[in-house]
Amino acid sequence: FQLGDINSSKRPNGVYFKNMQQTDLKYLDLNCREPRFQMTPLMIASLKGSKEIVLFLIKNGADIKFKDCKG
What we know:
Layout: H1 41-48, H2 51-59
Helix pairs in contact: 1-2
């Protein structure tokens, strides 16, 4: 999983998440940050309007209180 996976216009939203098993989640850091702006997958999914991915991330423990480099 990389931040680009949820940011691609070539793939339908959620294609990686639909087949994901609960055991796979323990290997993901849902609160990882990209280096330039310190954005998390949740922030990027929100920015892109990916409602299905936003809900998935929140449901599976993404922290909604994180802030990017601009606060």
